[in-house]
Amino acid sequence: MRRQDFHFDLPDELIARAPAEERRGSRLLCLDGPSGAVSHRRFAELPQLVRPGDLLVFNDTRVIPARLYARKETGGRLEILVERVLDEYRVLAHVRSSKSPKPGSRLLLEDDTPLEMVARHEALFELAFPGEGVLPVLERLGHMPLPPYIDRPDEASDRERYQTVYSREPGAVAAPTAGLHFDDDMLDTLRDMGVETAFVTLHVGAGTFQPVRVDDIHDHQMHSEVLNVPESVCRAVADCRARGGRVIAVGTTSVRALESAAGSGELRPTVGETSIFIYPGYRFRVVDRLITNFHLPESTLMMLVSAFAGYEQTMNAYREAVRERYRFFSYGDAMLIERNPDVNPW
After folding, report:
1. Residues 6+ apart with CB under 8 A from 240
2. pLDDT per residue over 88-120, tens digit each?
């Protein structure tokens, strides 16, 4: 199973560098995994495509303004991207500079707020935020960590738009982008019609944009992310099954959270970390349908979708999306996918 098998040609103009005017204003490509049939809808039509008794599972992580600009006391410039908040005063971060800071060195942010470089852990740097602590400094001086393919500076509007309306647990450095299409009115409509909701937390790391660099995808090492699947979600899934409803994951991060918590064969409350890698051949235990955006060529997320819908079905749907001029990636359009229970392992 080769990385190149998940390649597709994407014209640069189809990369969405700004969000749709309204959250629900995007398009929705519907893919039936078992048959491979594709239909073209609007995301605003989603209430017509779900049923009372279905369960929507959202990732309630909140994106932190994780990008900081700093300088060394000697004057050298640095760019810091927080990967994970360790506690109130410490983070693990990527640091870009001409020369890496050494343990014990002091860094100064734009308003001269000091940071200390505590230690290096392979590619990541442990930084200490004395005084007021991590989150207040990020809120005051941080920039939203837009994905690398959105090649523009972040804007004030990104603070709200690169965030789901239901986000509540700060810690992600990338948005769970399938959720960006939901607004409060749509959530109210879905609840009023009898669609249930549940919330997991998976703090998306910068590694979500890490390319697969090995040819054989089995050799790829996934990054680890913080996970919380509470007991209430396990009960909601069991209740959904009992009433004949469908479990619909909103985003690949919700899929990875649920399937990680079901790793034993049974969905159980789980707090910890996950580095689950889902690719063709994986047998899903929890999720029946998936709402997701269009993903990068040769990415682990393309591989997850291919495992869910079927490889040929997924690649054909992506080629159709390119022909129909869908908008791709984080601020782009969405897909609604029916799981293919008979996916050939390869």
Report:
1. 53, 54, 55, 196, 246, 247
2. 999 999 999 999 999 999 999 999 999 999 999
**Which structure tokens are listed for 160?**
């709200």
User: What are the pLDDT digits (tens) for 30-64?
Assistant: 999 999 999 999 999 999 999 999 999 999 999 99
- For residues 339 and 97, what is the distance between their CA atoms, to the nearest angstrom? 44
If you ran DSSP here, which 8-state letter would residue 328 be given? B
Q: Which stretch of DSSP H or E encloses residue 306?
A: helix 300-309
> DSSP string covering 169-183, please?
EEEESS--GGGGG--
DSSP state, 324? Answer: T
Among residues 253, 201, 208, the alpha carbon closest in space to that of 66 is found at 208
Among candidate residues 139, 118, 141, the one with its CA nearest the CA of residue 130: 118
Mind listing the pLDDT tens digit for each residue in 193-212?
A: 999 999 999 999 877 777 89
Query: Whole-model pTM?
Result: 0.94
Q: Confirm if 229 and 261 have CB atoms less than 8 A apart.
A: yes
DSSP string, 13-56: GGB-SS--SSGGGSEEEEEETTT--EEEEEGGGGGGTS-TT-EE
Percent of the chain at pLDDT > 70 equals 99
DSSP lists the bridge partners of residue 270 as 229
Say if residues 324 and 40 touch (Cβ distance below 8 Å).
Answer: yes
Closest CA to 165 of 134, 187, 194, 150: 187
Distance CA 13, CA 271 (A): 40
